[in-house]
Amino acid sequence: MPSAEEERLQAERMRDVLLLLDNLIRQEDVTIKAILSCLYDVGSANLINQKFRSRSLNGLMRRISTMSKPAFRFFAMRWIKKNCPELITKWLYSKASFRRSPTNAVKKLEAEVVDVKAVLLDAETRRQEVKLLRSQVKLLTGLLIGAITILGGSTLWLGYSQLPEAIPLIQSVRGDTQDPD
User: Fold this and answer.
1) Which of 6, 22, 3, 4 is nearest to 89 (CA)?
2) 55 DSSP 8-state letter
3) Rounded to whole angstroms, how far apart are CA atoms 84 and 75?
4) Distance between CA atoms of 96 and 119, rounded to whole angstroms?
5) Which of 2, 19, 42, 44 could form a disulfide with 65 if both were Cys (CB 3.0 to 4.6 A apart)?
6) What is the dihedral of CA 166, 172, 173, 179, to 10 degrees?
7) pTM of the entire predicted model
8) From CA 22, how far away is CA 82, in angstroms rounded?
9) Distance (Å, whole) CA 105 – CA 12
10) Among 41-50, 114-123, 156-165, the range of highest mean pLDDT
11) Nearest to 29 by CA among 86, 87, 80
12) Cβ atoms within 10 Å, residue 149
């Protein structure tokens, strides 16, 4: 039976493993995105082949799946950053402890993980919210500029197209009888 000191030392070391894994995941962002892209390509192709037997529908679904890939990658990265360090740490601890059931050290580690994770996720969540808000502002700005351009252009076109019809009406109101040409 490990003593209280050994359990505390194990909990500290596993917390270090958790922090190192979290740091590794944040550092290897590009690698994880590449892995997710590969997994998405394979998984979406297999799922589409399994669910849609029609050749034309299958091709349409493949094109749709390529458009949804960035959204998948965004949410998958959030999930991985949030859950993987803890899951990997638990798995590694179960392999290193040679036991089948969780011990008090793992329960203590889970409590510490929640504290560390809350601090890390708070900053990461804020950073991602700022990125999301910036992208929404860019999108809305583009839509606003497009709407103003279309509205202004259609107003000018409508005014210009009505101009030849308005000249005789204006002349008749003023009492002019001469041809404007």
Assistant:
1) 22
2) H
3) 13
4) 27
5) 44
6) 70
7) 0.47
8) 9
9) 9
10) 41-50
11) 80
12) 10
